[in-house]
Amino acid sequence: MTTKRIIPCLDVKWGRVVKGVKFLNLRDEGDPAELASRYEEEGADELVFLDVTATVEGRGTLLESVKSAASVVSIPLTVGGGVRSVQDASSLFSAGADKVSLNTAAVENPNLVTQIAREFGSQAVVVAIDAKRSSSGWKVHVKSGSVATELDVVWWGTKVVQLGAGEILLTSIDRDGTREGYDVELTRAVTSSVNVPVIASGGAGKPEHILQVLTEGGADAALAAGMFHDGVTTVSAVKRFLLSYGVEVRP
């Protein structure tokens, strides 16, 4: 079994970390840099920083917030929200990002995935897929989950890998913020169809949920937000729990 990663997520709106349910009713959770520092101390393997309103508001990522968070951590930092060009990606790397995440822009301009991968390497390109169940499986949603597309999630996952994505961040909108557990069926459908790492997101409420999505879902990493922000558990506690079940994690 490959080493699994635990990744706290910082959903950021105008410089503050927020968290909602199914992408709605956002509440304040704190300062990005303070939370980033805390999670590194707890043993987080990576961090994801998502400017959740940048695309909807038609602006770029708030670079000062990225710089502030990047300055206090040494673990890899993935940043997304408002990335619409190679130059946008370059600005984020200059601000301290190790990877950039594309979502809406990848759907609207698939060639952008290839362009950024050629410029900075596939390992630096994450495609975020926001998925919602439909009568025929799961459909891709864009613009912070507010707009449905006709793209099938599994098909789109295989497509972005062909375009050059080195990793997929897969979020279940149906489970987001519910703390009822990840959509394991969705996760397995994507992990069994692609040959790049998949980060499972949406629904974490307790360590058992993370264990399930890493083992039954085949995810390479589990992303969580609310349960860490609110102190339900810690990264270190989750890792101890996983180790007790034989799941290999970094110290």
UniProtKB/TrEMBL annotation:
CDD domains xrefs: HisF
Keyword Lyase annotated: yes
Record-level GO cellular component terms: cytoplasm
Catalytic residues identified in the record: 11, 130
EC number(s) on file: 4.3.2.10
Coiled-coil regions listed in the entry: none
Pathway: Amino-acid biosynthesis; L-histidine biosynthesis; L-histidine from 5-phospho-alpha-D-ribose 1-diphosphate: step 5/9
Protein location: Cytoplasm
Keywords assigned by UniProt, alphabetized: Amino-acid biosynthesis, Cytoplasm, Histidine biosynthesis, Lyase
Annotated InterPro entries: Aldolase_TIM, His_biosynth, HisF, IGPS_HisA/HisF, RibuloseP-bd_barrel
Pfam family, one: His_biosynth
Reaction(s) this enzyme catalyzes, per UniProt: 5-[(5-phospho-1-deoxy-D-ribulos-1-ylimino)methylamino]-1-(5-phospho-beta-D-ribosyl)imidazole-4-carboxamide + L-glutamine = D-erythro-1-(imidazol-4-yl)glycerol 3-phosphate + 5-amino-1-(5-phospho-beta-D-ribosyl)imidazole-4-carboxamide + L-glutamate + H(+)
Alphabetized GO MF terms: imidazoleglycerol-phosphate synthase activity; lyase activity
GO biological process entries: L-histidine biosynthetic process
Task of the protein: IGPS catalyzes the conversion of PRFAR and glutamine to IGP, AICAR and glutamate. The HisF subunit catalyzes the cyclization activity that produces IGP and AICAR from PRFAR using the ammonia provided by the HisH subunit.
Family statement: Belongs to the HisA/HisF family.
Quaternary organization: Heterodimer of HisH and HisF.
Name of the molecule in the record: Imidazole glycerol phosphate synthase subunit HisF
Species in which this protein is naturally found: Sulfodiicoccus acidiphilus
